[in-house]
């Protein structure tokens, strides 16, 4: 990427269900110097594993917003004029937009753009728990088939138990999305990324996130399945750069 003429952008990445900020570690060198990627963990996970878990949607949003606010204010002191944006995939899409709205309210500075990937808006999400009747064995098989979790994690008994616990915890929070996030509206731009072969979030449904913003919405359709955008981070980051600062790359 070419040297930037504007201040860089701190890109906060929100993980999909059952994941931690570790999924964005490999993104960090790919985004520099224009995009400074920072994964955001839920309490009780990853870098925040010593904390008590959130348990519900509003607590999750508040705790993740606190993390982003603290980091953003610290980094803006170090890098004057630093801008920010968010990226959320699947489960992380809804939480990322809610957190972006809360951070904007607290600091008075809107993100350059919120990027929502592989997710349908709350109104289209199925109500109630999805995993209550699914056995651990079946859930692991489904997770393996989706292709978003390393085989080493699925094969390790300890790690797979942790994965199952996180998936079920996230499913509880997800049941609150239709009611608690259905009325979410923002005044900053959105980028919507949808994969053509995504059976969970087909493009025509992903595009309906546009109703959640009064600002510009850019729709990006890509090839692949549910995890296409996170499996090709270089392409995804290039899309984000182009949307935030056209011609920057």
Task: Describe the protein in words.
With 249 residues, this protein is α/β, with parallel strands linked by helices. A six-stranded parallel beta sheet has the order 2-1-3-4-5-6, sandwiched between helices. Strand 3, helix 3 and strand 4 form a beta-alpha-beta unit. Helix 2 packs across helix 3. The termini are close together. The mean pLDDT is 93.
Mean pLDDT across the residues is 93
Structural class: alpha/beta
Content of β-strand: 5-15%
Shape: globular
String of helices and strands: EHEHEHEHHHHEHEHH
Largest sheet data: 6 strands, parallel
As a whole number of angstroms, the C-alpha radius of gyration is 17 Å
Euclidean distance between termini CA atoms: 5 Å
What is the tally of helical segments?
10
* Helix content bin: 40-55%
Number of extended strands: 6
Low-confidence stretches: none
The spatial strand order of the largest sheet comes to 2-1-3-4-5-6
Task: Record keyword descriptors for this entry.
10 helices; alpha/beta; 6-stranded parallel beta sheet; 249 residues; single chain
Quickly describe the structure.
The protein is α/β, with parallel strands linked by helices and 249 residues long.
Q: What is this structure's SSE topology?
A:
Layout: E1 9-14, H1 28-31, E2 35-39, H2 57-78, E3 83-89, H3 91-107, E4 114-117, H4 136-146, H5 151-155, H6 157-174, H7 177-180, E5 190-195, H8 203-206, E6 217-222, H9 228-231, H10 233-244
Parallel strand pairs: 1-2, 1-3, 3-4, 4-5, 5-6
Helix pairs in contact: 2-3
